[in-house]
Amino acid sequence: MSNFADRLVEAIRRKRSTVVVGLDPRLDLLPSDLRLRHGAGGTARPAAASRAILAFNKKVIDAVAPHAVAVKPQSAFYEIYGHEGVDAFEATCAYAADRGLLVIADVKRGDVPDTAEAYARAYLSPDSPVDALTVNPLFGRDGTEPFLKAAAATGRGVFILVHTSNPSSKEIQDLSVRGQPLYLAIADMVRAWGEGEGLVGRSGYSSIGAVAGATFPEQAKEIRSILPRAFLLVPGYGAQGATAKDLGVYYNADGLGAVVNASRSVIFAYTRSPGRETYGEKRWEEAVAAAARTMKEELQPYLKG
Amino acid sequence: MSNFADRLVEAIRRKRSTVVVGLDPRLDLLPSDLRLRHGAGGTARPAAASRAILAFNKKVIDAVAPHAVAVKPQSAFYEIYGHEGVDAFEATCAYAADRGLLVIADVKRGDVPDTAEAYARAYLSPDSPVDALTVNPLFGRDGTEPFLKAAAATGRGVFILVHTSNPSSKEIQDLSVRGQPLYLAIADMVRAWGEGEGLVGRSGYSSIGAVAGATFPEQAKEIRSILPRAFLLVPGYGAQGATAKDLGVYYNADGLGAVVNASRSVIFAYTRSPGRETYGEKRWEEAVAAAARTMKEELQPYLKG
Fold first, then answer.
1. Which candidate in A120, A255, B28, B150 could, as Cys together with B120 as Cys, close a disulfide (CB 3.0–4.6 Å)?
2. What is the pTM of this model?
């Protein structure tokens, strides 16, 4: 498989989109018809809940495929339903890959070297539908290396947590080390890691990117300058409060270097304005498609060339 | 369910043991008879591999139950086999709980608040066989709080990563912040978090503990002094190089406050000295039991009263 960064650049140019749709299903927000059809009304058992979630995800994937470059299923919302939920997670990844979307598995794993190697094998093996993985860097180089090696060997990508989108992120990530905040020290590491053999594509971008929350544009500006050849995966758009006008600093001058994730504001667009009024639950798939299209258009001014 | 720390103290006193056995199965190290019996010779499919792993784990649990207070299945080694591996993980946890062992799910999850809440629901719900979870603190208070709340509500425990056992742990965890290394700043947070309502047991210990690798006793001494009422979960014994004589600083004067994990050196005792020579693969369960018993006895001098 070719270099992940190159595949991402190709998808961005082809679709004129930097949209990632987060697949964070919540059973209580699924359309009630769909829930009932899969025996997942009320407090559903794990098997029924997982069936309903997979059916929902497939429709969402179909709806957003013209507008998004990638989907980002968040593992936690599947692990709630145990192994049956994980089965739905796997089937979701496979379905999205079949539909030509890149798949970013949002698992935020991180561990000691032997265990990190097991995680890399779990998600980045040659036959996995997963294109990229989110990784927690707290363990340092030896805990991150198995992911980097797997990415180089199989044409996959890794997004390292550098500055997360939650309010308390500053408590640890902004602590001052050697005269700079920790997140910049981690960005320095990501830069070095991303220059490793087999990781930089013909596009000049590295397959090792960074997570930089949309809710912290000031910090993103510094991260951007330390990581000119990394893609930033930017969560926090929409429901977490960031809007398109906040995001200019995340992109490079070439219009590349960032992909922006929205979860709830797209996949549950029929439960909130304006999707609720315009489409309602009966036409929920149209509401999802419209939200993805609007987000794509809002971010298009940053795309150049 | 009663307070996790109290249940841990009770198990330690009853068994006169501070041993935790890490269930990190590796298919290629499983006894070949057992592999063949479950159709998992060679490059096994996920379903067969998962069956063999579960069968192995059950025998290991039976062998170590008299000597260990807890088992610690490491999620990565199950996630390799996808949802079928996760099914084996769940069945392993349930079997260990049935055999009277505490179950520490080593998942090292950590995420933004909504997602952390989903993880807490996945592992710490009232009917889960999991007694405690490992958590990565990089997100700060709001990402950790859902785990603390679930622990308080359901009598479960959380072990926060403070200083991990891998050589590169120092690259981030030892960075100096406000005149002290990051791991001590995190230990300060763990102390405050552990004093929350419903978390301190009648034993005086908190259900919020800390991971402190056995390979860093100097650092553990400092962590111990900051966290007098927390249990330290101490990985790195055995295969990672630490021995019983290194571990005095991890325990409190009352002989409590630490549980020590060994994985490979116990569960694969039949593949290494002295278990290989004394028992060999034919009598592998005896080798496992003997390794757990030896470890228990090596650590007993630290137990007081």
1. B150
2. 0.98
